[in-house]
Specification:
Blueprint (H helix, E strand, L loop, with lengths): L1 H32 L20 H9 L2 H32 L5 H7 L2 H4 L2 H14 L5 H26 L3 H9 L4 H30 L2 H7 L6 H9 L5 H28 L2 H5 L3
Length: about 270
Amino acid sequence: MKRASLDRILVIALFSVCLVWLILPLALAVMWSMVDPDYVWSYPDLFPKVLSFKRWGLLWETTTLKQSMANSYLLAISAAFTTLLLSLPTSYALGRMHFRGKAVVQTLILLPMVIPGFVTAIFFSSLLFSLGIYSKFLGILIGHSVLLLPYALRILSVSFAQVRQDLIDAARDMGASRFTVFRVVFFPAIKPGILASLIIVFIYSIEEFALSFIIGSPEFTTVPTILYSYLGYQFIRPNAAVVSLILVVPNIFLMLVLERVLKVANPATIVGKG
């Protein structure tokens, strides 16, 4: 009974933390986004006087939100696949090969993750101009791919490392070509890692602000740059709530998809056991 009571208390505590940390802010964002433009929500009112979707329609029709969403999603999709293609050869080397200085290389590739975003954005924008790259889209795409490459490298190198060598040798002994070996042995094992890296890079690219702002503004806007404009000198909380929900809700869905992908991944395809 004591163990059961303790477990129940822990579950209640965990649920309470999740409620305060996740559900409550999301609920507040939903309420703020539905504040009618003609009725101010302020103290001492506990809830908005009138709820409506007028503000959603107003932002959709009178701002660059549509174009910013198109820019953000096109960038995120392009960055995800570009990062995947760039990371595959290096991930294979880090996961399957042994060479001097490998540990140093694995540490160095993580540096973009610890350098502050604005520091990276400032120096990266200067580098792009020095190279003669003036396209806003191309510049941000290159920046996102470089900045998010460590995530894909880390995920895929672990996926490659988990493929059993005896399966590779058996396929080769049976006369399988390199493509067949990759398709039959490697791909089933690294497929969850590929999907995970695509989703992770997509989410981080959608949410990235510093590079998008410094390289793209004011001509090329994304959803985060619009969000920060409402949180900055204009500080219009209901508008910021609308944009934040547009930014966050799809990412929550993608994270749930990622969790399910990793959960249903069959360990047998990785270690080669039936």
